[in-house]
Design goal:
The protein is an all-alpha fold and 201 residues long. The chain has two domains: 8-133; 144-201, no CATH class. The chain contains seven helices and no strands. The chain starts with 7 loop residues before the first helix and ends in a 7-residue tail after the last helix.
Length: 201
């Protein structure tokens, strides 16, 4: 693969574009992570609920067990504390559910905020860059074969603008048909330049 043009101005634009695209992707990733962390801070309330529920449940269980050992009244007095421990367990479960909900929300927002801009950047930047790299690699490979100049000249006749072809020769097609070497090299060079490849002597 040939990622960059052989020609300075175009290569400079490609490098600048790559740097800007990578910087933008990094910025959106950072923003997604920042939003994730910001929303995850809301789970602190759920942690407090879970801790409070767990602590209350353990306390009620402990009190119920202690009072349950009292002769005659122990069995009856323990019942309210068992019920209170269940309320503590419910509070603990609610705290855990709140943390899970916040984690899902934070993950969804973090990914959602970063994903769409990054996908857009990849479509607008990476796809054309890959297309250029493939085109340049093919053109460079063609230029190195024996009939490369002939093939590139023919390709130029098929793909380049008429104004560019006329600048090479008033009748470029006729020149190609009769094998006019200077015209064919100029046409091949035109096609190579469009692909970002410099013709080698």
């Amino acid at each position: 693969m040939k990622p960059y043009s052989d020609f300075g101005p175009r290569r400079t634009r490609q490098i600048i574009g790559d740097v800007l695209a990578l910087a933008a992707i990094t910025a959106w990733i950072w923003l997604g992570v920042a939003v994730f962390q910001l929303v995850m801070n809301l789970s602190a309330f759920g942690v407090q609920m879970e801790d409070a529920g767990a602590g209350f449940k353990e306390t009620m269980i402990e009190v119920g067990e202690n009072l349950g050992g009292v002769p005659l009244i122990g069995g009856g007095i323990r019942i309210p504390f068992d019920g209170a421990s269940e309320a503590g367990a419910a509070l603990e479960a609610a705290g855990q559910s709140q943390q899970e909900a916040v984690a899902q929300l934070a993950t969804g927002l973090g990914i959602g905020i970063a994903a769409l801009p990054i996908i857009t950047i990849l479509v607008l930047w990476l796809v054309p860059r890959l297309r250029f790299a493939r085109k340049a690699s093919r053109a460079k490979a063609i230029a190195q074969v024996e009939a490369g100049v002939d093939l590139l000249a023919l390709r130029a006749l098929a793909t380049q603008k008429i104004s560019a072809l006329s600048a090479v020769s008033p009748d470029a097609m006729a020149a190609w048909r009769r094998g006019d070497e200077p015209v064919m090299r100029s046409l091949a060079q035109l096609e190579l330049k469009a692909s970002g490849v410099r013709m080698r002597d």
